[in-house]
Amino acid sequence: DRDTDKKRIEELLEENMVLEIAQKQSMNESAHLGWELEQLSKTTDLADSEKSFVFELNECASSRILKLEKDNQSLQNTIQELRDASLTSRESSLKFVELEKENQQLSKKIEKLQNQIEKEKQSNQDLETLSEDLIKDKEQLQVVVETLKADKDRQIKDLKQENDHL
Question: Per its UniProt entry, which superkingdom is the organism in (predicted)?
């Protein structure tokens, strides 16, 4: 029984290590998303209204990232608690069953966090696409305004000539 318990403890420790690695990757991805948001806000040259729109979207994404980072920290603390608990509960096989259930729950939470991070990445890509579209629209509107100004100037000139002729 003790050998079996020792093997089970080793398995749980390995599972905890895997969960911790996955959690760290999730935190790295969150940090990278934050960095991408900063780069996007630094390099995007939008009109004031476009800037405020993108800024609001970035703030929303940043707050989600912060929430995910807090969740990751909470999971890391739980993993450490589980590791400590697994070392102190060698005699109790019931404790191992509970730890296994908690590890499964943590795995599900990590998977959910990874899915949320993927959604955030997609959201950031959508924001970038929207930003590019807004810039293109702005450029097109500037061309239209310049064309209208040229037409107006031409009409004024024609009207002055006609007036002078009259």
Answer: Eukaryota
60-86: per-residue pLDDT in tens? 667 777 777 787 787 778 778 777 766
Measured torsion, CA atoms of residues 5, 6, 10, 16, in degrees rounded to the nearest 10: 50
pTM of the predicted model, to two decimals? 0.36
Query: How much of the chain, in percent, has pLDDT values that exceed 70?
Result: 83
User: 90-122, pLDDT tens digit by residue?
Assistant: 555 677 778 888 889 988 999 999 999 999 999
Report CA dihedral (98, 103, 109, 111) to the nearest 10 degrees: -150
Q: Which residues contact 41 (CB under 8 A, 6 or more apart)?
A: 54, 55, 58
Decide: helix, strand or coil at residue 163.
Answer: helix
Structure tokens at 89: 């509960």
Distance CA(140)–CA(144), nearest Å, equals: 6
**CA dist., res. 74 & res. 83, Å (int):** 14
Are 79 and 23 a contacting pair, CB within 8 Å? Answer: yes
Question: Could you give the C-alpha distances from 11 to 23, 93, 96, 141, in angstroms and in order?
Answer: 18, 13, 10, 63
